[in-house]
Amino acid sequence: MANPTRAEAEARRQQQKKNKRNNQESQTLLNDLNNVAQESTTVQDTTNTTNTNNTVSTANTVTNTINQHSRFSTLPSNQSFSEAQAIAQKLGISLLNPGELLGTDPYKADGNIPKITAKDANEQLRALQLQSNALDVRLAKTDLQRKVIKVSDSTAKLIGDAVKYATTQIEVGQLVIENQIADVRYQTAQSKLRQTEEYLQQQNDSTQGTIQLTSALREQWTLKFEKVQADNAKLKLSIEGAKLEAEIVREQLEAKLLYQA
């Protein structure tokens, strides 16, 4: 093997430097991507922690102001999702964990996915196609089930509307009763008004009679006074006559005595 010339050796050294620089840049880019991913994860974790703390703080504040509450009023959002998963599991629905399949390095096959040959891949693709057919059937069944749930929900709302309609009828009937009560109260007030007016008429009649009686009583007392005055005058005349008779008798007696003497 011939020794390389100076030019070839220099070209080789330049190529090695270039390859080394490219490798360094690639490694730097990978490190930057990893740093960004880690920072994003840290920020997300911090945000989730902050949101959770804020949620718990807010829930505790609400708890201090409400004496009776359900456990959902203080439950963190992640636990609420667990509650939702439990509800879904009762319906036969399970949650897929994508974190196990995605991996973390975008330049490596580090996902939790098995590695298979082309032959096995074809067999698996055929199996997947069959499974896809099954999933299509299940998807159609799921759509049907969703329609069933929607119809059931709509029917439940229809029942609620029927109850509201019946309630409205009762409330309208109650308004009619309240209208009749108001009318009876109005008639009662009218009756009281007529009774009061009759009392007023009776009082006016009594007052008018009293006025008329006052004039008659005044005349009666005037006549009584005049009668008393007449009786007094008659009595005075009687007294004067008695005095005059007594004077005449006295004078006759004196004259008789003088004549006998």
Description:
The protein is mostly helical and 261 residues long. Helices cover 85% and strands 0% of the residues. The protein contains 4 helices and no strands. It has helices at residues 6-65, 77-90, 99-102, 118-260. The mean pLDDT is 79.
Give a brief description.
The chain is mostly helical.
Map the helices and strands.
Layout: H1 6-65, H2 77-90, H3 99-102, H4 118-260
Radius of gyration: 63 Å
Strand percentage, roughly?
under 5%
Q: Please, what is the average pLDDT?
A: 79
Bin the helical content: over 70%
Low-pLDDT windows of residues: none
Q: How do the helices and strands follow one another from N- to C-terminus?
A: HHHH
- Biggest sheet features: none
Shape: rod-shaped
Q: Structural class from helices and strands?
A: mainly alpha
- First-last Cα distance: 231 Å
Query: How many strand elements?
Result: 0
Please count the helical segments.
4
Protein name: TolC family protein
Region (Disordered): 1-26
What are the main properties of this structure?
0% strand, mainly alpha, 4 helices, single chain, rod-shaped, 261 residues, 85% helix, TolC family protein
